[in-house]
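Hi, here's the filled form for the chain we discussed.

Project: internal
Contact: R.S.
Residues: 242
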Amino acid sequence: MLNPLTTLYYDDYLLAVHKPAGLLVHRSPIDRHETEFALQYARALNGGKHVYPVHRLDRPTSGVLLFALDPDTARRLGQAMMAGLMAKTYQAVVRGWPPESGVIDHPLREEPEDRRRKHEEQPVREALTRYRRLATTEIPVAIERYPTSRYSLVELFPATGRKHQLRRHMKHISHPIIGDANHGRGRHNRYFAERFGEGRLMLAATRLELIHPVTGDPLILEAEPEASFQRVLSIFPGMGND
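And the returned structure, exactly as it came back:
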């Protein structure tokens, strides 16, 4: 069986991979019927031995995913993450032209993993995301009431780790991420799905910075967005492959 993960970094303590869009990290109560997970493929890359997810990427999000190879390393990395000592960078294609840079400081109500608990009152947590705009484009296609449609490529830097934080924050500032079925705009999502032959969430984890929990050395893990993401970037002059 072909392993869909690409190894980015591997030593005695850590395994970093690129996860494609559409692959769950591990079993979830929401997707009980699924049988393929990044966890099992990472275990295969580690010679069949156990791996421990340090963080998660949502199923439709692609990019850098880190595993610890033993419980102690997993515990140390979990503590570092809780202390805000890991820096994550994402790229996203969003509707409209947001400011060149900004901070989204908007608390979010927790979303339970199990949909059967959605009726229960959930706590509200602080949530903060920084962003900067990398590129803009205006295409001659009338998707809503305007004769043209505007989009941006942005970099996102979450300072907190709430569920669906980046999607919910970009919706909050009226620049939803393309391909987001829950928080985005259906007409724009359909246009991109039809133009590029597939619909995907245009969100990719491109960089993870941390201190190695054993050696103490700075570690920067990077991955270019996968091909399905790069194709969409062709709407920006001089970028991507159509």
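Let me know if anything looks off before we file it.
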